[in-house]
Amino acid sequence: MEFQIKCHLGYDVSGPASFLFNVAVAQNSFQRLITEHFEVAGAESCQEMVIGGQRYHRVTAQKGPVELIYEAAVEATHELLGDPFRLQVPLFEQIPAEALVFIYPSRFCQSDLLARLAKREFNQDESGFYRVTRICNWIFERIEYLSGTTTPTTSAFDTVTELAGVCRDFAHLAIAFCRSLGIPARFVSAYAFGLNPPDFHAYIEAFIGGRWILFDPTRLAPQSSFVRIGHGRDAADTSFATIFGGAVMNKMELSMKPTSGQLGSPQYTTAPISNYPSAARLKNNPSNTDQDATGK
Known about the structure:
The protein has helices spanning 97-100, 115-121, 128-142, 156-162, 167-180, 279-284; strands at 2-21, 31-41, 45-51, 54-61, 64-76, 79-80, 144-145, 164-165, 185-191, 201-208, 211-215, 227-232, 241-258, 273-274, 294-295. With 296 residues, it is of the alpha+beta class. The strands form 4 sheets. Strands 1, 2, 3, 4, 5, 13 and 15 form a 7-stranded antiparallel sheet that branches.
């Protein structure tokens, strides 16, 4: 489907400040940009960088109001995969280099602290796909989605203790459980259709059956509407804005809607689904911007 995305961020800058924004849509064979506009008013400089397939904008400002305006029309497609039983957890020696970093504990995903719970709750005789599905179901059923109950420093261990959180926390807990069971898993930031109120969304990808398969334990938006921004070990790697210096956010307005004239609406699915190119597709298309490369 084709979507219209708008992101408007505002800041009060009290002194010299630098920003690293990660709000631009990632470009790959599943996401085609039709039109795009990026503007930062009140900035001294703005530089775009592409690192690991993610698009960052480095901005500096001295003092006064700073406003970021990002608008894009993007055609998003997703691949429904075949038999879920074939999507197995890889043996350690079969995990490719790009996925190895996503099997270790990270700042917000303390898989080492949750290993006993994960091994007790999740049947390791199930296929990889159904095991990750069980993890997401467990989180959906036991963790209350409750805005304002967590902070930017809340971790997966905190969430399983407090039994409440938002999409960021749901993703961190799912990732920690996956890694506890030897399943590479990573955090993905995205735009998603139908969130109320509109916000940046977080879901996970697990590396099973040789592919990055997406899962969302919140069930707040149809997976076929996800438009990825970036991915990383956890939210620390994918923050929409990292600020160095004196700046305070005073505005965040987001919207996402299907382009007018389209038939149908984004759909939920319980089948395996992916919006990240397979290793074979990346190998056959060296120009694909989802590869781990730096440019632009």
